[in-house]
Design a protein that fits this description.
- The structure is a homodimer of 313-residue chains.
- The first copy, chain A, is of the alpha/beta class and 313 residues long.
- The first copy, chain A, is built from twelve helices and nine strands.
- Chain A has helices at residues 16-27, 41-49, 60-64, 79-86, 104-110, 157-169, 179-205, 209-217, 223-229, 234-243, 245-267, 271-290; strands at residues 6-12, 31-37, 55-57, 69-72, 95-98, 119-120, 123-125, 146-149, 173-176.
- A six-stranded parallel β-sheet of chain A has the order 3-2-1-4-5-6, with helices on both faces. In chain A, strands 7-8-9 form a three-stranded mixed β-sheet, with helices on one face.
- In chain A, helix 4 links the parallel strand 4 (69-72) and strand 5.
- Chains A, B: This is prephenate dehydrogenase.
Chain lengths: 313, 313
């Protein structure tokens, strides 16, 4: 039994990610005590029923008092208000982090409200499913996934290293980069794919009703994979697009240019252009399998599509 | 031991789908004998090494002689040439089918070359992975998947029923509809999703090299699911887009209109429009899970992402 990395962890917000942090930190003995707060009385009660923490508060200020590590796990649009609420109650020397999918706007929203005596080190675990809420917590969610930290250049190296150790203890691989760079990389790897998935599922849902029921029935032929992505939390993703506007619009511009080329090739019956692109994209897939970010095993899109409702693990 | 449904099955083309049919038909004792042909000597030799059939021919005409069921398993762009080659050698009363992802153009290409004494009943099993070639054959590929048949109105009901029984014996659920309707439904459930996936992966691969390596590294955050779709066989998909041009362009037009609305909402900071769409798409996902076309179990996109190279089943 080793000593916990942090005596007291405070989680502000206890949805899918917050609950997963609580479960993973508890199992690994990574923290001594877990304080949980959320504005929703129903969610707070549910977190307590699930036994995710040790103490529970409606007010974030109460939860963060005396905490050595505070992780804000709310939609990014709410992070500024949370920082304002907890700022005056933070312990000197505490590490304050978050899990938001965008970083520049979160830094802009939170930093002004945090006292200089705390270490503000923004973070983003690249993990999550399409489920939300405290019941969606998964103890293994961060296992072998990336967690990106975006410390300012002036950040205390010892504090950064300690937060890195925390995420490693939860099973994650950790990488540090600037907030700006994070937002650009995530715009193409995550935000644009989500936007496209939302869009195509929306297009399908607007179809005449005769076709719509068949879209559901025959969804396994490709569409289904998009619906899983497009089932992600609406509040979280609204905030992502509003807060990473420039990078998303930049990537969307490139996507549209490419789609125009592809559309023209189809219209003109230009098979060579299509074949060349489709060969190039196949190579990208091989690179991803080669670096261990996915497996080449066929799973037909899902682990076991014959069982309609597997138990969560 | 029941009698086989067909005495002799001829498979023209022995890629991912053809090989899977051979394996499934053999296991179920669905046919008495399997004849295989393909123009590629290397592929033919590999099919024989794998023991997929009983007899092997370089010339499709030799394979189809005396066959009771002929299934053409080639990219749809090649189906006309195959029909021309086998037409004069087909047995009277034989059923001729295919597995192409588009149906109107396949009917147009094949029908003129087939004698009136055979039953031409086009088909499309909605199954497949991103892998190709005879080694990618999977005995369970059609289990609980849909197979759509598009018989002409004049088709012999007994022949249609017999082909349905064949696919059911391979584990599939069978549905009949017109070729035109099939092409429209597949344009939105399969062809457009593939086109979009190819496009976004292409956009990412054109990025400056500094970002591109990170796109691979952090691909698990959404992008990865697209790369799997975009790794599908280039020849097959080139032919799909060239042969279902009208329906794909129609759906692409709707997709683009919707994407323009979404882009404007992001640019204007219009969170309500985003939130409304994201809520609507989540409901679609629930419908798909409710009708058993997918499971709600979290699998992080893949069965087990911690094992980089699982064995095929």
């Amino acid at each position: 039994m080793t000593d916990p990395l942090f005596g007291k962890l405070a989680l502000v917000g206890i949805g899918h990610i917050g609950a997963s942090i609580a479960l993973a930190a508890r199992r690994g003995g990574v923290v001594g005590e877990i304080a949980i707060s959320t504005r929703s009385p129903a969610t707070l009660a549910r977190a307590e029923e699930l036994g995710l923490g040790d103490v529970y508060f409606a007010d974030a200020a109460d939860a963060v008092r005396g905490a050595d590590l505070v992780i804000v796990c709310v939609p990014v649009g709410a992070s500024g208000d949370v920082a304002k609420a907890i700022g005056p109650h933070l312990k000197a020397g505490a590490i304050v982090s978050d899990v938001g999918s965008v970083k520049v706007s979160v830094v802009k929203a939170m930093a002004p409200h945090l006292p200089s005596a705390v270490h503000f080190i923004p973070g983003h675990p690249l993990a999550g499913t399409e489920h939300s809420g405290p019941d969606a917590g998964l103890v293994d969610l961060f296992q072998n996934r990336w967690c990106v930290l975006t410390p300012a250049e002036t950040a205390d190296p010892a504090a950064v290293e300690k937060l890195m150790a925390f995420w490693r203890a939860l099973g994650a691989n950790v990488e540090a980069m600037s907030a700006e760079h994070h937002d650009l990389v995530l715009a193409i790897t995550s935000h644009l794919p989500h936007l496209i998935a939302y869009n195509i599922v929306g297009t399908a849902s607007d179809l005449e009703s005769g076709i719509r029921s068949e879209v559901l029935k025959f969804s396994a032929s490709g569409f289904r994979d998009f619906t899983r992505i497009a089932a992600s939390d609406p509040t979280m993703w609204r905030d992502v697009f509003l807060n990473n506007k420039e990078a998303v619009l930049e990537m969307l511009g490139r996507f549209n240019e490419d789609l125009a080329t592809l559309t023209r090739a189809i219209r003109n019956g230009d098979g060579d252009t299509l074949f060349d692109l489709f060969t190039r994209t196949r190579a990208i897939r091989r690179s991803i399998v080669a670096i261990g970010q996915d497996t080449s095993a066929p799973d037909f899109g899902r682990r076991d599509h014959t069982k309609p409702d597997q138990a969560k693990t």
